[in-house]
Amino acid sequence: MTRFCIICATVLCASYCSPEAPETSSEEQFGSNIQDTELQGTQLQGSNIQGMTMQGFGFAGATLNGAALTNVHVDKGELVADQNQVTLHGASLAGAHLSAQVRNVSVNPPTTASVEYRITSVAVETGNDPTNTGSTFLYTLEQNVDNLGSWQPACPLDLDGRRVAIPLAATWDETGARVESTTMFTFGCTSGVIAKCYRWGYRPWVTGYGDLAEMHWICTRLARADYCGDGTSHTQDGTLINIWDTLPSPGPIQHWEALPGELLPGLFFEAGWRTNGAACLSHARWLLPDGALIALECPGKLILPGLAGLGGTACDTLGQALGYGSAVKMFDESYLLH
C-alpha cells in the first residue's frame, strides 16, 4: 500500500534533496485515503467537541438498554463488555451509552466535564489492514450535545463519506503524548490522525514487528507535522506526504516508493521522526518561511541551520536522519508548498 499526503508550501529547489532510496514504502498521512494517496490533517482524535479537548471515554458507567455494562475494555480493535454474564461485542453493543471526559483548556484554571455518547451502529472494518490482522470494528457515535437528548454525529465525514471511529486502548493528552490508562480509552474518528495511523498498519496491539504502540505514537506526530512534539500541528489539512518506517522483519509496514515526479513535483525528504516529534528537518523544509519560527517554538530540540546550511538539526537523507539515534524510526517526504 502506498501512502501520500498533501501539504501546502512553496516549491523549493532540490539543491539539498537527493533522498537515498531506503528499504521501505510510501503511505498516507493526516487525512483520509484517496486512491492510494495520503493527506495530512490537523486533528488528532477527529471528534467534534465544540472547543473542548477530548481526554477519553470511560470504561466505567457504560449502559445498554438502561442496564449497566461491566468489564468494558478494548480487545485489539474492538470494544467488549459484559452484561448479565454474557459477553457482548461487535454489533451487539449498538445502542450502548458511554461517558467521555472532555477538558476546556481555554479557561484558567482548565475545567473538565462529562459528555454522553451513544453507539448507533457497528460494522466490521474491511481493508486498511497492511498487517492482515483483522479484529477491527468501526463505530458510529452520536453525542448528546445539550444533556437533554439532542443527539448529533460525533465524528466528521471522512474521505469515504463515513462518520465512524476506531477504539484504541490508550489516551492522548493536549501535548499529543500517548498515555496508558486503565480507566479510559480513545475512540479515534477516521477523519483524525489516531485512526489514520492505525489504518496505515500501526496497530498498537499487533506483535511481531517491534513496538507498534511506539510506532503508532510516532506516526501521529508525523501525520500532524508536530515537529516540536508538543501537540502543535504545523501543517494544513490535505498536505501531500510520502511516509515509511524501518521496522524489522516482517516489516517494514510502510515502504518507501518513488512517487511519480511528473504528477507530484516538489516532493522532498522532510524529516526523521520519534515519539517526541521531529529529530531533524531537511534543508528544504528549513528554508520555508516558517523555518525560523519552528526553531523558536522548539528550543533545544530543533536548531535552524546557519549560513550556507551549516550546523543545526538538519537531515536530507534517510542515512542522515538515522544518525540522530535509534529512536528515529519513521520518515517522510513532503510536498513542500506554502
Mean pLDDT: 84
Distance between the termini: 27 Å
Spatial strand arrangement across the major sheet: 12-11-10-9-3-16-13
Q: How many discrete domains?
A: 2
Helix content percent band? 10-25%
Number of strands: 20
Which stretches of 5+ consecutive residues score pLDDT under 50? 1-40
In percent, how much strand structure appears in the residues?
Answer: 25-35%
Please compute the radius of gyration using only Cα atoms.
20 Å
Work out the helix count. Answer: 5
Order of helices and strands: EEEEEEEEEEEEEEEEHHEEEHHHE
Structural class comes to mainly beta
Structure description:
The protein has 338 residues and is mainly beta. It has 2 domains: 1-43 and 201-338, no CATH class; 45-191, no CATH class. Helices cover 10% and strands 30% of the residues. The protein has 5 helices and 20 strands. The strands form 6 sheets. Strands 12-11-10-9-3-16-13 form a 7-stranded antiparallel sheet, with helices on one face. Helix 1 packs across helix 2. It is globular.
